[in-house]
Amino acid sequence: MLKLIHASKIYDRGGVRALDNVSLTVQSGQYVSITGASGSGKSTLMHILGLLDTPTEGRYLLDGNEVSALPPRALARLRGEQIGFIFQHFQLIGGMSALENVALPLTLQGVPRAARLRRAEQALASVGLMHRAAHKPGQLSGGQQQRVAIARALVTRPCVLLADEPTAGLDPASATDVLDLFDRLHRCGNTIVLITHDPAAAARAGRRLYLENGVLSS
C-alpha cells in the first residue's frame, strides 16, 4: 500500500537530514505506529506519506504507483482521494455542522449533494455520532470532535488513514475512546499509520516502529 525506498529529506539550510535513508513498507490492512522524540523526523515522515511533501532522495510508491516526482496538482488530487488525515487539533470548521464537516471533502471532489450527505451520514454512524450530526464543533466535546474528524477522514474511502498525534489533546477517557475506534477500524480492514509520542497508544498497533534523528527502526 505504502512503500518508501531509501527516502531522505534534506533541508538546504545547513544540510539537515530530517529523514535519513528511510525504507518502509506498509501493507494493506496493517496498523502501524511510529514513535520518536520531538525533532526526530516524525512530522517530515507524515508529510511525505501524506503527499504534503516529497523526498529529496529516494522513491515513494502509493498503492503501487510511483508518486515521488508528480507535480503539485497531481499530488493534491491523489491526496484528496487516497489519504485520510486525522490531526491533533481536529481542524473542523466552526460554522458548519458535524455532518457538513464530514461531507466537505466530497463537496470539494464535486460529489452530488444527495450522495455526499448519504456517505457523510454513513461515516458519522461508523464513529457513533449520527445523533450529533446537526451540532457544530463548539457544541461537541474534544473526543466527539476528534471522532467527527475521523469520520471526515473516512468519507472519501481512502487507501490509508494517517493519524498525527490524534489523542495528544484529549482527556484520558476520550483518548481511550479514540484508540478503541482505531482498533475497530483496523478490524474492519482499514490501513492505519499512527504517529504518536504516547507508548500506550503506540502499543495498540500490530507493528511498532521508532524514529530517531531521521532513522527508522523496529
Low-confidence stretches: none
Order of helices and strands: EEEHEEHEHHHEHEHEE
Derived from helix and strand composition plus strand pairing, the structural class reads: alpha/beta
Strand content: 25-35%
Helix content: 25-40%
Oligomer: single chain
Number of helices: 7
Mean pLDDT: 93
Task: Tell me the radius of gyration.
Answer: 17 Å
Q: Could you give the count of β-strands?
A: 10
In whole angstroms, the N-to-C terminal distance is 19 Å
Q: In order across it, which strands form the biggest sheet?
A: 6-7-8-3-9-10
Instruction: Assign an overall shape.
Output: globular
Major beta-sheet overview = 6 strands, mixed
Short description:
The protein has 218 residues and is α/β, with parallel strands linked by helices.
Could you characterize the architecture of this molecule?
- The protein is an alpha/beta fold and 218 residues long.
- The chain has seven helices and ten strands.
- It has helices spanning 42-49, 72-82, 98-108, 113-126, 142-154, 172-187, 199-202; strands spanning 2-11, 16-26, 31-35, 57-62, 65-66, 83-86, 160-164, 192-195, 207-212, 215-217.
- The strands form two sheets. A six-stranded mixed beta sheet has the order 6-7-8-3-9-10, with helices on both faces. The protein has a four-stranded antiparallel beta sheet with strand order 2-1-4-5, with helices on one face.
- α6 (172-187) links the parallel β7 and β8.
- α3 runs parallel beside α5 (142-154).
- The protein is globular, with a radius of gyration of 17 Å.
- The model has no long low-confidence stretch (mean pLDDT 93).
